[in-house]
Amino acid sequence: MVPKKKILDILGAYDLKNLTIATVCSHSSLQIFHGARKEGFKTLGIAIGREPKFYGAFPLAKPDKFMVLNSYQEIPDIVEKLKEENAVIIPHGSFVEYLGHKKFEELEIPTFGNRAVLEWESDREKSRQWLESAGIEMPMKFDDPRKIDRPVLVKFYGAKGGKGFFIAKNYEEFMAVNPQERYTIQEYVIGTRYYIHYFYSPIKEEGYKLSKGTLELLGMDRRDEANIDEVYKVGSIERLRELGWRQTFVVTGNVEVVMRESLLPKVLEMGEKVVERSFQLFGGMIGPFCLETIVTDELKIKVFEISARIVAGTNVAVGGSPYSELVEPGMSTGRRIAREIKIAAEKHRLEEIIS
Ligand code: ATP
């Protein structure tokens, strides 16, 4: 990982009144650029292949400038140019996944958030260690497929959006697929999914207080996952199989949701525990994160994954959500990131939110 000292030296040479918010043109970039502009920043889009035409359709979210590369792998080559722009990088899922974790960790450019979180978040075993040691309830894990005694979901590694995942209820069904890739076996939790968008600020003092800073609940979404979410149209999973299809969990979009209000105290406590534990484990997770949950009919909230940066599901709330509306009207996660950078720059506290 690039030493913090190096990043602070780069920041030291920046004109803090003239920062540029930069990210890769994909995932949640419209929201990030839109939010950054609202907070008065210049914006820069890193485009792969060619300057994307589709921003023309969204003038309020079009970056001021583009840098066009042939591939994500060329991002480390433009670090000097980015520095000339006083750029702060906002990482999102596609950015980190396509550049590669290791290369992202080594990028010598100020980046929003704590990059040390990657090691804990990207590995399913380590993220389980983090969440469970924080007191978060997760779906049970089976280390040995022979021990499968209930419906399970067999998941593969890497953010593939659920492609290839399969459900089995015993060893025979598991062996019928006999996966050759690295996998993990999780109890299949029956319930309704909520992808909860939080924002942790070490700087803001008023609000839902943590041992240091405050936690915000900015929204919730549910993913639309083809073809599993539409399986009812053909009748059932059995019918899907009869027709020669296998269920997939490929994310095609998102919808905004709210949870019953009585669950919100628990939701905030969960976010609080995860952040507090992150301080002990790796110096803290800063900014936006998402707990991916399933709420059962006993109103238990089980977390099956954490994403430690802006998730694409926040795109449902570009103009604010039913929760962020109660924090500050019109506040998206993208805008909240920009606001945090703005306040930190004004207070000379950028080193607390950048790595
Ligand atoms: P991404 O990185 O894009 O979040 P992923 O490949 O890590 O995707 P998961 O998010 O873990 O995959 O799971 C994909 C989908 O599978 C979830 O959105 C959810 O619909 C379903 N799912 C995951 N875990 C469980 C579980 N334990 N029980 C029931 N359904 C689950």
Measured by DSSP, the beta-strand proportion falls in 15-25%
Estimated structural class: alpha+beta
What is the helix tally? 11
* Share of helical residues: 25-40%
Q: What sort of overall outline do the alpha carbons produce when their principal axes are compared? A: globular
CATH topology of the largest domain: D-amino Acid Aminotransferase, Chain A, domain 1
Radius of gyration: 21 Å
CATH architecture title of the largest domain? 2-Layer Sandwich
Total individual domains: 2
Mind telling me the CATH superfamily name of the largest domain? ATP-grasp fold, B domain
Find the count of extended strands (DSSP E, 2+ residues). 14
Largest sheet, in brief, is: 6 strands, antiparallel
Estimate the mean pLDDT confidence: 95
- CATH class of the largest domain, anyone? Alpha Beta
N-to-C order of helices and strands: HEHEEHEHHHHEEEHEEEEHEHEEH
What distance separates the N and C termini? 10 Å
> Which small-molecule species are bound to the chains here?
adenosine-5'-triphosphate
Structure report:
The protein has 355 residues and is an alpha+beta fold. It has two domains: 4-135 and 191-225 and 255-352, 2-Layer Sandwich (D-amino Acid Aminotransferase, Chain A, domain 1), CATH 3.30.470.20; 141-190 and 230-251, 2-Layer Sandwich (Dna Ligase, domain 1). Helices cover 28% and strands 24% of the residues. The protein has helices at residues 4-12, 29-38, 79-84, 93-99, 101-106, 117-121, 124-133, 171-177, 237-242, 264-282, 333-346; strands at residues 20-24, 42-48, 65-69, 87-89, 141-142, 152-156, 166-168, 183-187, 192-201, 208-209, 214-227, 249-256, 287-295, 301-307. Strands 9, 10, 11, 12, 13 and 14 form a six-stranded antiparallel beta sheet that branches. It has a four-stranded parallel beta sheet with strand order 3-2-1-4. The longest helix has 19 residues, at 264-282. The N and C termini lie close together (10 Å). The model has no long low-confidence stretch (mean pLDDT 95). Bound molecules: adenosine-5'-triphosphate. Adenosine-5'-triphosphate binds at residues 139, 153, 155, 159-162, 165, 186-189, 193, 223, 225, 249, 292, 294, 304-305.
